[in-house]
Amino acid sequence: MHAKIAKLEQQFCSGIGKAENQLSNIFNGVSIYVNGFTVPSADELKELMAKHGGIYHTYQRSDDYIIASNLPDTKVKNMSLAKVVKPEWITDSISANRLLDFKDYLLYRNSRTQPWLNFNQKKRSDVLEHRIHKNYHTIDANKDYQRKEEFKDKESSFIMCNENFIEPQQQSTALNVNDSKKTQAVTKSAADPNFISEFYNNSRLHHISQLGACFKQYVNDLREESNFEFPAHDEFKSKIFSISNTKKNTSNIVFQDSRVIMHIDMDCFFVSVGLRNKPELRGKPVAVTHSKGGQPRLKRPGVDRETEFNLYKQKQIKKLSKAMGIAEDMKIETRIDNITDEDDKYGSMSEIASCSYEARAKGVKNGMFMGAALKLCPDLQTIPYDFEGYKEVAYTLYNTISQYTLDIEAVSCDEMYVDCTELLKTLNVSVHDFAFAIRDEIKRKTGCPCSTGFGGNRLQARLATKQAKPNGQFFLTSDLVDEFMYNINLRELPGVGRQISTKLESLGHITCGSLQILSLASLQHHLGIKVGAQLYDQCRGCDTHPLTFHTVRKSVSAEVNYGIRFDNYKQCEEFLKQLSAEVHSRMQQFKVVGKCITLKLMVRAKDAPLETAKFMGHGFCDPISKSTTLQNATNDINIITKEVISICKKQNIDPKEMRGIGIQITKLDSINSKQVRGPINKFFTSKASLKTEDQLNNTETFCNIDQNNLGTGDRKNIKNPSTPKKHNAISPEIKSPVLGTVKSSIVGKRRGRPRFVKAEASTSQNLMSKFLQGKSVANEICVKKESIKEQMPEEALVEKVTTPGLLSLPWENVRELLRAWFDSGQSPKPCDVELIVAYLKGMVTSKNIDKVYILVNFIKRRIHGMKNDMWNPVEKCVVEEVQNAMLAVYGKKLLINN
Amino acid sequence: MDACFVDVTVEFLAVAFHSILYYASIYPRVIFETRKKYSVVVYRCLHPDVNLYIDRCLKSIAEALKTDELHRVEFAVTDTSFTPGIKFVFDFERMAAYDDTADAYLVRCEQNLRAFCLLLASVSQKFNGFPADSSFGIYLYTNESIEVALASMPHLEDFPLIEAEEEVEEMDNIMPLRRFSIRNYSIDTYIELPKPWTFCS
Which residues form the signal peptide (chain B) (predicted)? Predict the structure, then answer.
């Protein structure tokens, strides 16, 4: 089959060459696949494509545009409709003599009654964009071309991402193609089989967290493979000297604890990456969001924003007032204030991921809803997400820093801490020059501004960065710290959120300075021991946490809280299966197995409106989280799916009410890859590496360009920071990427996996000691029992001790006790009689009347034998009570000898 | 239902019935032969009609026990009009908690059964004053569905259960014999005596 397809394609290509009547190059890079009957027919389209530089596939390839006039319903359901285009696209493009935007010709644009989300990733900016590219990467086109040719030979697949480097003369068209590749997606609900992949392609939170986790892993890998020699040092040093010759900075900069911690943060990362291609928007208020802004939508039935917002607010107020311990009648400002209804101009509930400083000046903030932002700043320009761009810039940033040092703690894709202490010593340059040089280099390589802050610890560095923004640097030296901290707002401290800050404000503290008055004890009293101690340090500019260069993954999870709308349980189960598969693939990616499976569900709260305020959002929900722990750690997809479905079934929730589903695996253990290196495993890993190959090339190209840009770069000397192996490990896939939390643990500079080893050792020790302990406990018990038995005869003489022992004794011994009681010669006490009666009654209830019979007759005989009037009432009482019990249980009296 | 329990119980009831017949002197003692059971001497009736009745009763009891619906078996010594004068009661009660391995070889069980036989002999002195024309009957306490089920079984077809008449005289006193367990059932044995009962001793 493959051979056939290949042959057909070859025929087509050779056909073009023979014909030599190629009219234009409109469809360069466009491949089509014709599905079903079309006008013009498939054959005609084939010819047209050949004439205009396009490719026609007889069998469908994944990146083909599907040309169709109509499709059967099953096909519509099962394929991504993003690329199903009407044949008019081809004919109109030819008549216009340029490639038209295929989005205008989508066949199934309105097939679903739901409105669109505007997922278009890039607008066409044609030549301008290219110019920027060219400026930043002065490419040695020939060299690169050769490199690409090599790659082509290896893979024999077309590398779209590098297209503009291959054919410099046709960049504008190539870019066009690139752009139109980024497709606009029809909004799907989770019941759709393609939902998950579509969701992860468009979820911004997913991309951000994935990138963050990705870079933590990247730093881990770099550290593991590096020999900690940095050949780029010399070059960098000479560069610094060339810069700093003119303005020799003699001021001695000294940081606290004689450490130098640098914090690098890109300035409004998403915006500046987006603006690289849109210089015309520079200087204007710009926001990155999914929404286009200001376009009212049809109001959906069932939406009741007011009710839902009130619910949110109440919840928030409840939380806050609980934290502060005051009444719940307070008023708070939230971001959902002033959001109007959907059909209003300012009703958009699309979140702003990042906004430019011009927009911030007008009061727009990150995380604000688009509607509210538009009110503040009506001329706010929106640009779409460019996830590829973020990745590219982030890699460049990390590669730049890792050339010089690997003492890096990755925070997110655009933010990191770097311990520069050693680096500055070896370079023997001043911090000032270093900061200037590194910022310059980053700006030059990425085209995005960044800010750096320096301090004696991570807190200081971070606060310094805030001071440095935008596009600046700040040195929080030891002599500045006290004064600087004094004016820092408490809200700016990491770890201080709304709850803590409101509480502190109610105590009358807004800045760190005023908080310094409080003693450690009183802070801990108000906020709890841990938070109190942390704040006590923080408001003085101290931070005891060292940088962690090696991060250990604690959990793997996948969670979808958008678009979850099921009609029946079957769809829900199907979705759980898919999500389990997603988690499974992530676990394989990180080479871990896990023990604890948690299913997180978000279920519509009872009083929440049926339709959510945000389109397809989760609305106001009750979160449910249930987990099971397995016997053995696993990453078996079947086990995970089975467990998850069984948990879900147990909850017995109406699938229509579900709004969010997440699966999390914790208690992880890494797989020893050598042990489980079966053929299936190999298949998976090789597949993953294939997928990532083009990504790899992309980043690698950038590295090379970077080094070229340095000008003085001697390529052979520079150790290429990205070898294929590393890339396999980080695997920056688009479709099944990383989501979930990576919590760092302090391991220090040591590599490997010391934590697990430790844990194992300790548990085994525990088990052993437990076993030993258990044995000794058992021994003790035995000893006690024996001693009791030994003591009994002696104690039997004392009534008070004898009678309580009745029930615990075997019944034969009771007679001994009774005999001792009768022989004691004392007058009978009511409490003792009561005890005996209770014991006998218990025997009757448990139907042990044969024993009761013996005992009662025994008592009767003994008391008769004593001939003591004091004991007669005892006999009477006992017999009466026993007969009562007998009547209750058997309906008959016990036969008692006279 | 433990098959072992049914076997042991039916065997035990057979021994008990014959022994009661012997000790209560309902029939002349010459029609009994001695046998060895539970390592002690027991007596067994030789009269074919008596044995037939007892065997058929035991068959019904076995079937009823299998269905887990038999609560009680009574062996009543009656006068000529079949009015019970004294009853030997065997109560069956299922135990909720039961350790399968506790008495795996039934050693303790056998001891208990032996004890019952000896106990019966020891108390027999107290009820040998029955009139010469006394008779006996065996009562099963169960539900109607079991009755119907038993009647429809081919090997029990000709021996259906007959519903007992309303008890004329309510028994008044209980003389416990022994409580013991066979597998997961506990059996409570006692003698019900009518009110004006006086021992002949």
Answer: none
In chain B, domain spans: 3-164+174-193
Is A149 one of the catalytic residues?
no
Q: What is the pLDDT of residues A669-719, one digit of tens each?
A: 877 544 444 455 555 545 444 444 444 444 444 444 444 444 444 444 444
Residues found in chain A: 898
Q: Which ranges in A406-563 belong to alpha helices (H)?
A: 421-427, 431-446, 458-468, 478-486, 498-506, 512-515, 520-527, 529-538
State the nearest Cα–Cα gap between B45 and chain A, in angstroms.
28
Closest-CA residue of chain B to A854: B176
For residues A460 and A417, give the distance between their C-alpha atoms in angstroms, rounded to a whole number: 11
Fold of B3-164+174-193: Cell Cycle, Spindle Assembly Checkpoint Protein; Chain A (3.30.900)
Chain A residue numbers with beta carbons less than 8 Å from the beta carbon of B190 are: 849-850
Put simply, the answer to whether A852 touches B176 (Cβ < 8 Å) is: yes
Secondary structure E strands in A635-691: 658-670
Q: Could you tell me the maximum CA-CA distance found in chain A, to the nearest angstrom?
A: 137
Question: Does the beta-carbon distance from B178 to A850 stay under 8 Å?
Answer: yes
The residue among B74, B197, B141, B172 whose CA lies nearest residue A887 is: B172
Q: What is the pTM of this model?
A: 0.45
Which among A614, A600, A516 is positioned nearest to A558, based on CA atoms?
A600
Q: What whole-number distance in Å separates Cα of residue B16 and Cα of residue B14?
A: 5
Q: Please name the member of B91, B93, B171 whose beta carbon is closest to the beta carbon of A892.
A: B171
Which value does ipTM take for this structure? 0.82
Could you tell me which residues are beta bridge partners of residue A560?
A661
Round to whole Å and give the CA distance between A416 and B6: 78
- Joined together, the tokens standing for residue A303 give 């939406």
**Cβ distance A453 to A469 under 8 Å?**
no
Query: Which chain B residues contact residue A898 at CB under 8 A?
Result: none
Strands (E) in A583-716, as ranges, are: 592-604, 621-634, 658-670
